[in-house]
């Protein structure tokens, strides 16, 4: 009888420890998120299930073209791509991204932009002055984010610049549906 009681206590301890470890990992390191909407097409599709690395920006800063999750409102997180970094100016003119006046290739958009026909616009032209807040350059601890589906994305062009405090983490792993399992391409 004592042996059976000891086994039960061991099982209960193991389950409590496993639960605490799962809580710590979910709270501080990794979390699931589901893509909601078409704003990151063609890179991410509506319904893609992804893992968010919450730890990545604790030890480092965002880099250009990272796909990030951030708190857009008190109850809604968005997934977008980092385009502009602190100290930079960003402009799009005639479907070309300029950082500090220099042309920057966006390989994840090349196929979409190649499909554009006359009178179609994929990314409407904008400059830093068009971003809410009227910044000349991106301030410290902020990034400019855009969705890959530029004509259908609520991003920095409407929300303004995103502070590092709003960032939940970086995401690059799709784990569901099975035919989409893998890493996102840059």
Automatic annotation (TrEMBL):
GO terms for molecular function: signal peptidase activity. It holds the Pfam family Peptidase_S26. It is found in: Cell membrane; Membrane. Its main location: membrane. Gene3D superfamilies: Umud Fragment, subunit A. Residues 8-176 form the Peptidase S26 domain. Its EC number is 3.4.21.89. Keywords: Hydrolase, Membrane, Protease, Transmembrane, Transmembrane helix. The chain crosses the membrane at residues 12-35. It comes from the Bacteria. It is a single-pass type II membrane protein. It catalyses: Cleavage of hydrophobic, N-terminal signal or leader sequences from secreted and periplasmic proteins. Belongs to the peptidase S26 family. NCBIfam families: sigpep_I_bact. This is Signal peptidase I.
